[in-house]
Amino acid sequence: MKNAKLSARSKRMSNFEGLHKHAGLNLVSLMDIFTILVFFLLVSSGSQQLPNSKDITLPASVADKVPKETLIISITASAILVQGKKVADTADLMQGDSAIISALEKELDFRTANRLYGEQDKSIGRAVTIMGDENIPYQLLRKILATCRQTNYTKIAFAAVQTAKNKG
Predict the structure, then answer these.
(1) Is-above-0.85 flag for pTM?
(2) Cα–Cα distance for residue pair 99/108, rounded to 1 Å
(3) What would the pLDDT profile of 75-117 be if each residue is shown by its tens digit?
(4) How many CA atoms are closer than 13 Å to the CA of 37, on its beta-carbon side?
(5) What's the topology of domain 60-162?
(6) What CA–CA distance (Å, rounded) separates 168 from 165?
(7) Residue extents of the structural domains in the chain
């Protein structure tokens, strides 16, 4: 009888309140998702890894040092890449007789000017990691090293695949 005396709007409002009165947020499943997300981020950010490239076969090494986060120059059979951005063709560089690669020098200077990588103090050399195929010509590698030295990237590391040490 009580509902019969109410207007249509009052009935709708009481019905709405009845439906939404006990609504709550289930935090247990939300906490589970965030816990899994935190563990995933902790595990995945534990060590810095070099980018994987199918075009590059890295040489083997028994070094124990873990690579630091630095600027990465990749050398494939067809191109030179800085942080994945194509800078020059290797075929053109092998034809030229210049000791410095101008396109690479320009890209390294750009990254230095924008402070994307490297120290601000000019007396301290900047760090770079060279990821080169094990079969690249030494002439090309020499040009890349000269260009890195020219732009004050003097802390040069070479990427390699870690192999087990021989015990014997």
Answers:
(1) no
(2) 16
(3) 888 888 888 888 888 888 878 778 888 888 898 888 888 765 5
(4) 6
(5) Nucleotidyltransferase; domain 5 (3.30.420)
(6) 9
(7) 8-44, 60-162
